[in-house]
Amino acid sequence: MLGQIAEDGFPVTGDPSQADVIIVNTCGFIESAAQESVDEILSLAEFKKSGHCRRLIVTGCLPERYREALAGSLPEVDMFLGTGAYQQIAEALHRPNSNTRCLLPSPDGLPLQHCGTGRTLTTASFAYLKVSEGCDRHCTYCIIPKLRGKLRSRTPEDVAMEARKLISMNFKEIVIIGQDTGAYGRDLRPPVPLSRLLADVADISKDIRVRFLYGSPDTTDETLIRTVADHDNICVYFDIPMQHAAPLVLKRMGRNYNAGDLLRLVEHIRSVIPDAALRTTMMVGFPGETDKDFNELMKFAETVRFDHLGAFIYSDADDLPSHRLSNHVPKKIAKERHHALMSAQAGWSEGKNQKYIGRTFRVLVEEQVEEGLYAGRTWFQAPEVDGIVYIDAQDRKNAFRVSEFADIRITDALEYDLRGVTA
Ligand code: SF4
């Protein structure tokens, strides 16, 4: 959207008090995200009274999910664009007096972005590269397939072309994403595996690194693991949302594997790549989750000791198949389980971080926090979700360049972050 706005000549400001039009791009995935989106919309609507703002436009998953009902409850908003309408943002800016308040076409009909799509990047050293849209699975707790449509993949040639463009713009880490990245290419004829795409992008330049996020247990196959192992510049980082380990919960979630499959997968990854970093997402409080199920989940997480684990509390809504399942877990119990899992993970994570002390890693320097202090990331830290490395540069003021790699020796470990100095 930013790319299209810029191409149409509209200047962009991050300061809402200066904006003539305010666009709020929303998430509607879980209740807390939807609430946060609504709070943000209401708070930005104030600029219609106190600032320059003449129009407020809301885009993304929240209007896609709640449609006209949302429009009815937010009279402050002038226009709603669903996920299938994001390419109409410039048009929406051009016709301020249009009578159409809701643009909610099916996301399935949306042409995919391609290497010629204008982009305005808001990140400095890394760039997300979206390789597919949509998801063909049916996890019972998830609204994403409804909001983003069926799986549609870009061709590997088109993705590689965009990667070249990003590399020429000095982005040093290309982060491959989709809603179900692991399933990339299954819809292409002939199908193209994610491993081939990763290899194609990694082979463009040895001076960058490639990372992929949002795999799944069934798509993390031998070829993918070997491709990661064989390329020095693909991060040995496996982000595999597992959601649970208890068999009945997984079955009710519509996830087609069990704890044994997961343990075998983890062991295999670690046998091929002993240093591999593992991230997962777990959900607690899913309908029917008993104390015994939760204990199985805790035991599983303790056995694996993920480098990074994010836990979510099940978020109920009546448009989800899981809503109709029996034995919903009281919020209080779900919160207690969430706290127990995240507290345990904090300890495991710190223990993992302690082991890095004294070792040297290639860090992508991303920001000068203050004079003599920088922040960056290693291959085992994904942007925005994992910890970072604080780099102490007291003796070498301004010695690091943002968007460059530096060899950093780790000197201290915090719960999630690390500290280091030049090696
Ligand atoms: S694979 Fe991920 S995006 Fe697809 S339905 Fe399941 S949770 Fe949702």
Distinct small molecules bound, one entry per kind: iron/sulfur cluster
Strands, total number: 17
Summed up, the helix count is: 13
What is the typical, i.e. mean, pLDDT? 95
Order of helix and strand elements from N to C terminus: HEHHEHEHEEEHEHEHEHEHHEHEHEEEEE
Give the CATH level 1 class of the largest domain. Alpha Beta
Briefly note the structural class of the backbone: alpha/beta
Summarize the structure.
The protein has about 425 residues and is an alpha/beta fold. The protein has 13 helices and 17 strands.
Question: Can you characterise this structure?
Answer:
The protein is an alpha/beta fold and 423 residues long. It folds into three domains: 2-105, Methylthiotransferase, N-terminal domain (Rossmann fold), CATH 3.40.50; 126-354, pyruvate-formate lyase- activating enzyme, CATH 3.80.30.20; 360-422, OB fold (Dihydrolipoamide Acetyltransferase, E2P) (Beta Barrel), CATH 2.40.50. It is built from 13 helices and 17 strands. The protein has helices at 2-7, 31-45, 47-50, 61-73, 89-94, 144-148, 156-168, 194-202, 222-230, 247-253, 259-272, 291-304, 331-354; strands at residues 21-26, 55-60, 79-81, 102-103, 126-130, 132-133, 152-153, 173-177, 209-212, 237-239, 277-284, 308-313, 360-370, 373-377, 389-392, 405-413, 418-422. The strands form five sheets. A five-stranded mixed barrel has the order 13-14-15-17-16. Strand 13 and strand 14 (373-377) form a beta hairpin. Helix 7 runs parallel beside helix 8, helix 8 (194-202) runs parallel beside helix 9 (222-230) and helix 12 packs parallel to helix 13 (331-354). It is globular. The model has no long low-confidence stretch (mean pLDDT 95). The structure holds iron/sulfur cluster (SF4). Iron/sulfur cluster is lined by residues 135, 137, 139, 142, 144-145, 179-180.
